[in-house]
Design a protein that fits this description.
- The chain is mainly alpha-helical.
- It has one domain: Up-down Bundle (Na+/H+ antiporter like fold).
- It has helices at residues 2-21, 26-37, 47-51, 53-71, 74-80, 82-86, 90-107, 111-121, 126-139, 147-173, 180-210, 215-235, 244-258, 260-287, 291-319, 327-336, 342-347, 350-353, 359-388.
- Helix 7 crosses helix 8 (111-121), helix 11 runs parallel beside helix 13 (244-258) and helix 13 runs antiparallel to helix 14 (260-287).
């Protein structure tokens, strides 16, 4: 396993640096590293490492969401209001509807299979979007209108909605009935996640005020609490819907609200952790990509993904109506909601594992969505934010 980790970090940094010099997103180099090292190419990664790949990817995601929470000022979100709420589910709904309309005639699948496919590709990737939005917040681009904060929060909540929709559609494909209780999980998981995270954040603040700890120890403690929140989601699965990742983000946001100086210092520590976690995350996402599926799908699957992206962008634009945002700012929001990676890697193979007839096609479309949209969205954000957003005085 140690050899595999060495390959991941050395080659990941090398290709990431090369792509940066070429003015391309570094994550594209990391994804390529994973594809090359993974079981479907050179097969240089230890099986034991691949066995815990999902846990390691979740660890990296927790780090970036914790950092996001520590940098998120709740008053900024209050100022945004309605668009921030709509961004959590409207773009995903548009993309699912788009896939239902496009996939049956183009990919020769049923409407239900198309809905499953739409739910798989409908989630924006917080692992791609959140670091980009944090960079914008640090440099002051779009912060006057709270654009990065709105996108960052929406990208994190969007996943909760999409995973519930995916579970409902897969249940239908297995012969289960669709119930209102299933969709009630969405608001319940959001509310419980927020309450759990904020409560723990307030307790954490009281603890660090009472007991003196080095910032490094605070980071370890905060990470441990974040792990427990994510584990709590699985433990409560059959009892109470709970969004662990949202709880992680709200824990940091509560600390930022109550103790901004400590939150700022911890955010700087988490940004250093992200240097390694980012490489691990995107290389392991790349390792899940089987190019044979992508090549077998051909042009129709590629066209379907690009067309449903237009539906997603229309959904984002709808969320921005009756706001003070300019056309350029709205265009940036549409671009920022393109990247997909983590959720597609996590759930893309589930229909195939369950033996659903559409399993192969769903996995193929998920793989293609990662390959196309992660670099496209990251490149679009990097190349457009200076042109489309105004910079606040720092």
């Amino acid at each position: 396993m140690l050899t595999s980790l060495a390959f991941i970090f050395l080659l990941g940094m090398a290709l990431g640096g090369l792509f940066k010099k070429l003015r391309l997103p570094t994550l594209l180099g990391m994804l390529l590293t994973g594809i090359l090292l993974g079981p479907y190419a050179l097969n240089l990664l230890d099986a034991s490492l691949l066995g815990i790949s999902a846990d390691l990817r979740q660890l990296a995601l927790i780090i970036i969401l914790a950092r996001a929470g520590l940098s998120l000022d709740i008053s900024d979100l209050k100022r945004v209001g309605r668009p921030a709420f709509l961004m959590c589910f409207v773009p995903a709904c548009f993309e699912i509807i788009g896939m239902i309309l496009i996939a049956p005639p183009l990919l020769h699948v049923s409407v239900l299979d198309a809905a499953i496919m739409g739910a798989v590709v409908g989630a924006v990737s917080p692992a791609v979007v959140v670091p980009k939005m944090l960079h914008l917040m640090e440099t002051g681009y779009g912060t006057q209108r709270s654009i990065p904060q709105m996108i960052m929060a929406g990208a994190s909540l969007d996943d909760v909605f999409v995973i519930v929709m995916f579970t409902a559609f897969v249940g239908l494909a297995q012969g289960e009935t669709l119930s209102a209780a299933g969709f009630l999980q969405i608001p319940v998981s959001i509310v419980t996640g927020l309450l759990g995270g904020v409560s723990l954040g307030l307790l954490f603040n009281s603890f660090v005020k009472r007991f003196h700890l080095r910032d490094s120890a605070k980071v370890v403690l905060l990470l441990s609490l974040s792990f427990l929140l994510v584990a709590l989601e699985s433990a409560l699965k059959t009892v109470l819907p709970f969004s662990g990742l949202l709880a992680v983000m709200s824990l940091g946001a509560a600390l930022q609200k109550k103790n901004s100086p400590v939150a700022k210092r911890l955010s700087a520590k988490f940004s250093k952790l992200w240097v390694g976690a980012e490489i691990l995350l995107f290389v392991l996402v790349g390792a899940t990509v089987d190019l044979r599926y992508a090549m077998a799908a051909g042009l129709p699957a590629l066209i379907a993904i690009l067309l449903v992206l237009l539906f997603r962008m229309a959904g984002v634009y709808l969320c921005m109506l009756k706001t003070q945002l300019s056309f350029k700012e709205r265009l940036f929001c549409m671009i920022a909601y393109i990247p997909k990676a983590t959720v597609q890697a996590a759930i893309g193979g589930i229909p195939l594992a369950l033996g659903l007839p559409s399993g192969n096609m769903v996995l193929t479309v998920a793989v293609l969505a990662i390959i196309i949209t992660a670099p496209l969205g990251a490149f679009g954000i990097d190349r457009s934010y200076k042109r489309l957003l105004s910079q606040s005085c720092q």
